[in-house]
Amino acid sequence: MKKMKYQDYYSNVANKISPYQWEEGIPSNALRFDTNTLPFPPSCLPEFFKKIKNDCPINDYNDPKYSKLKYLVADCEKVEPNMISITNSGDEAIDVLAKTFFNPGDNFLVTPPSYEMFTLQCLINNGNLIESPLLDKTYDVNYKDIIEKSRSKKIKIIFLCNPNNPTGTVIKINTIEEIINKSGSIVVVDEVYREFYGKSSVQLLKKYNNLVILRSFSKFGAIAGVRVGYLISNPDLTLKFENIRLPLGVGYLSCKLAEYVLKYDKAGMRKQIEMIKLERKKLSEEFSKIGFTVLPSYANFLLVKIGKNAEKICGKLKQKGIIIRDRSKKKYLEGCVRITVKSNKENMFLIKAIKEVLNEEEKKII
To answer: Are 120 and 257 in a shared domain?
Structure first.
């Protein structure tokens, strides 16, 4: 039988896209500081499993409108339910945005270094990348450049990450408003890490119809494994998102757990977030004592400048069963690593391991 040359059928996009890069070869028992997830699952999880055990019609489809979850999210965000679109994670939310707005070749703008899925999902959907890099050293947005490019390049979507991943830096709300007001583009503000900062652009939805807020349960809800996110926007845009997204993209159990977390774990969420903020300060101080440069962070991670030995140190830590996110070869992040803030016990274990690695390297030089 003649074999079909299926490679000839690949789309242009499939031929040029590289996958999102995760660390490979990680042992199952590794201590992971590379995923920006919270150290503990929701405190209500045992009760949720007891309840769902006796009420779990898993043989049937979920409510395709996610009506109950929408209502609970809207209540938390202090908006109307018709301003919420539930998605399978924040990443699907980006895909929905791209599908909603892009014709082939339409321009989108990102502010590198920022969340890489903005670029990946938009390129998959035939968008054209325009960059407005963050300013050197401070990693602040160059808002004048963003506004100028939005007009001269006819940008369809501007992606702003606040707090920004991987730097942990923030954009002032009045700066975001200026970009929304003067750009003439759809402005998407990723607020996945909002709880670790404490400020939001949601109130600007009352004034501007070109604003979309992107959110995820992965961080504030501590349920990254179930993949639930959402978009907040004006009702007309939300209706378009609802038409575009997969009708049953969020599974029954995922949806029910998200509902349960919002109803019964608000105190638990606040407690864990406050713990992370406290540990963030402690961990930053420990890295400074070692001699590393630490960027002030408003997220649940730190960007740490280790220098030319960053890759080697990451490798040595991996041998010890500890994974941190090596960004040292990335443009704009040379010599840097990103480290998730975890519990005090885990953080101190990391610090001890880094000191051991540095001592080992020092002995080799001597």
So the answer is: yes
